[in-house]
Amino acid sequence: MDTYILGIESSCDDTSAAVIKNGILLSNVTAGQAVHMAYGGVVPELASRAHQQNIVPVVSEALRQAGVNKEQLNAVAFTRGPGLMGSLLVGVSFAKGFARSLDIPLIDVNHLQAHVIANFVKEPGEESDQPKYPFLCLLVSGGNSQIIKVNAYNDMEVLGQTIDDAAGEAIDKCSKVMGLGYPGGPIIDKLARQGNPKTFTFAKPHIEGYNFSFSGLKTSFLYSLRDWIKDDPDFVEHHKTDLAASLEHTIVEILMDKLRKVVKDTHIKEVALAGGVSANNGLRNSFHEHAEKYGWKVYIPKFRFTTDNAAMIATTGYFKYQDKDFCSIDLPAYSRVTII
Fold first, then answer.
1. CB burial class (10 A; 0-12, 13-18, 19+) of residue 155?
2. pLDDT tens-digit profile of 210-268?
3. Which residues contact 186 (CB under 8 A, 6 or more apart)?
């Protein structure tokens, strides 16, 4: 008998819905929120309002593209957290009401865990090369930067993480300081492809163990830029490609230095990448270079599964459905939590 799972994602500023059939992705629909660009970051109240406007049409379109009637669904999987509470509440409330109306199970999904599971999303007619347990995963996004040992889809151990700012946050803040706009990730990525990564040198904090830090890099970038602009008010415009390339190079080095140490100590050479910053070309290229140099077997999700999306929620939900790992309707959303 076929199993259909509806996935719903609303942790930040993307409203997304996806449908999985027997572990194969049938649809993945996402509505973004351009309203935040004017503010240089996500405004929580505006985000939750936009989710309320988007949730019904997005779910309807996901079902239509999948060619599935809501009566065929076996369960509804939803992002319970972490994320912005107002945004989460829209998706959680909709999922609860939708599942109750159909009398089908609810499946709560940890957003960070789902980013890791994005490496297991299967599409029709494609042979997918998936990580083999145990594997390591570098999870990098606007709000999180972690190195995770993955023993199973529901057994993940954080080995290292940022002690302050996340890598994606550092990129966004530095982009904002340069006056390049929001979100900074795609802008810095595009400019970095045209610049020289060795032009400028920024601070790389020395943190013990597997943890890392990006606050010092942000400060170094800010102060360096301030001094350069004193001598040349148009410094950013004259050097923005080299600044972007040097910033990206520094962040990638910080991440990969720690990841190499973990691989060496654990002897695990199955290594995956996940999270919004995994869309960065410099980081993806570095993964492939490490695979060739150190014999790693690397796994990188397709670009459309790196940012927040419901395909990863539905895929995680499918795994949990097979284990009958359902949740009660009274479970609340949560804004903060670890990968566990």
1. exposed
2. 999 999 999 999 999 999 999 999 999 999 999 999 999 999 999 999 999 999 999 99
3. 279
Strands 155-161 and 145-152: antiparallel
- Name the token pair of 193: 């492809």
Q: What is the pTM of this model?
A: 0.93
Measured torsion, CA atoms of residues 186, 192, 193, 198, in degrees rounded to the nearest 10: -160
Q: How far apart, in whole angstroms, are the C-alpha atoms of residue 130 and residue 127? A: 9
Give the side-chain half-sphere CA count within 13 A for 9: 31
Alpha-carbon distance of 140 to 276, in angstroms, equals: 6
The first and second tokens of residue 70, run together, are: 């809501």
The Cα–Cα gap between 132 and 259 comes to: 18
Angle, helices 167-177 vs 215-231, to 10°: value is 10
Helices 215-231 & 235-266 angle (0-180, nearest 10): 160
* Half-sphere exposure for 125 (CA within 13 Å, toward CB): 1
